């Protein structure tokens, strides 16, 4: 892997000497450049030598062992050989002459055979009268056969190298979001980022593997381990500013490093309330588990946030359970349209409005506290229900493109509003509220942040402050309804006891959004609505973000306060409802918030219903209890002549009793 990496660096430096232009501006340029990589880098390296047995060297070694005639096959091995033929025999011979040697792609012709055992089995194969020359010819044919899978492995790896190089070069040179876009290939902007950093030590050079991650890789595998070919196949998306430390699997594998990082972790846990585990899916889980256990000895309430993208909910669950992760980072900027945005909001939003999952299923009971001598403790017992790991939902992370790049600048406001309305933790990144035009490369960016006199007057300032305050205020509003309609996303958060709520309507501003698409005005039955605030984000003239003054600037913008939405009360066959009509000018990049309240609702109603319920039914026999709770329509009509209640607009109840 290092030899290939170093050759790619040299090829980048000497590109004109091979007849290539340093500027890569099209897919055709990428294709030509990769043809040059194959011709001038991969083929001359003869990487296949790392995979196969050196036939000439092996024949010489076995010839010497033949002459010595010191090894003989055991009778059991002879019988096993005689019992197989064809491909099965070839596989048996491979296992016999190679033995239990573990092959690692670390040296050329590092795959070897046991010369003594090979000489012994050759004497059996060519017979008692067979001579050495016939045996060596038989050996060459056998070694060619044994090398065939290794050559196929090499061919597959070369195809992976070519594919990954092609995709990486195409992204870095042709994608506007890449820091190498528009830059010449050379020593500063190499054809691809090096996977290794070379350092000088008193003992000579050391080539250190840079850290990184693998798209779609198994996070439980160590991609820098001796059996991994991730660096050779160029599968690692590398960070050039840090190297990967070799922890091993336990403290015994590298005692100094584990203890050093343990002391560092303890210091950080004493200082900070929480940790963010960057790239958790590429951190050895044994290491993370050990260090977090140590951290919690000095800070039991440590809040752990993890960037975890495994591609599998089952694997996510393994990390959450073993590491005790409090929140997984999730990204709103991954949504590609309003429908997907509403799906993410629903996924991280809480439980459905009117849900019986928690409040209505609890009952008085006791549980055994095994951690305190088996003490029996009274409490409310509720059934456990499955749930996703808790999320910290970011409107934008430091890894994401900015709204101006991926959607439109105006979408920064509705995107932030939808995130703020979800019933989970929320987060953002510096530059989002200021409306930076492009994603910042945290390694190569050298400009300073601007320091505004009043942050509330910049970009999203005032609107974001209102949304953040609202997000904190409605933390207990755990019931949620999310609705998507054309370019609009509506989120309604409701308190499970008081039934007070907050409803937000966002007009998303993905590319191609229109000023006034169809929107079916919400009807809030039995509910009063009070407008809270409404904003719209506009683009302004000019592009001050490109000022060359060494300071980071956002895109010129104007945050407009919109008028209150119109609320009208009507009545139909379902009863009284409040209709909400959008204010004038509610175009792409707009949000509005109203507070809702159920009319004639008594918050302590469920408590009164539960009071003395046990006493009321304790003396009822099962037949009477069935009549009180579950008697169906036919049973009721047969007994008293009347059936189940029929609720207008809802239909007949399932049971005539209280359970109906």
The SS-based structural class is alpha/beta
> How many alpha or pi helices?
18
Largest beta sheet: what is the strand line-up?
7-13-14-15-22-17-19
DSSP E strands, number: 24
Task: List low-confidence stretches.
Answer: none
- Average pLDDT works out at 87
- The gross shape turns out to be globular
Oligomer: single chain
Rg over C-alpha atoms, rounded to the nearest angstrom: 35 Å
Largest sheet: 7 strands, mixed
Helix content: 25-40%
Strand content: 15-25%
Distance between the termini: 69 Å
Question: Would you spell out the secondary-structure blueprint of this structure?
Answer:
Blueprint: H1 2-13, H2 27-45, H3 55-68, H4 75-82, H5 86-98, H6 115-126, H7 132-174, E1 196-201, E2 204-214, E3 236-243, H8 255-271, E4 274-277, H9 285-298, E5 303-306, H10 313-323, E6 327-331, H11 338-347, E7 351-352, E8 363-369, E9 375-381, E10 391-394, H12 403-406, H13 412-420, E11 425-427, E12 448-449, H14 461-473, E13 479-485, E14 488-494, E15 500-507, E16 523-525, E17 527-539, E18 551-552, E19 557-561, E20 566-572, E21 575-581, E22 590-598, H15 605-610, H16 613-617, H17 622-629, H18 633-640, E23 646-647, E24 651-652
Parallel strand pairs: 4-5, 5-6, 6-10, 7-13, 10-11, 12-18
Antiparallel strand pairs: 1-2, 2-3, 8-9, 13-14, 14-15, 15-22, 16-21, 17-19, 17-22, 20-21, 23-24
Helix pairs in contact: 1-2, 2-7, 3-6, 3-7, 6-7, 8-9, 13-14
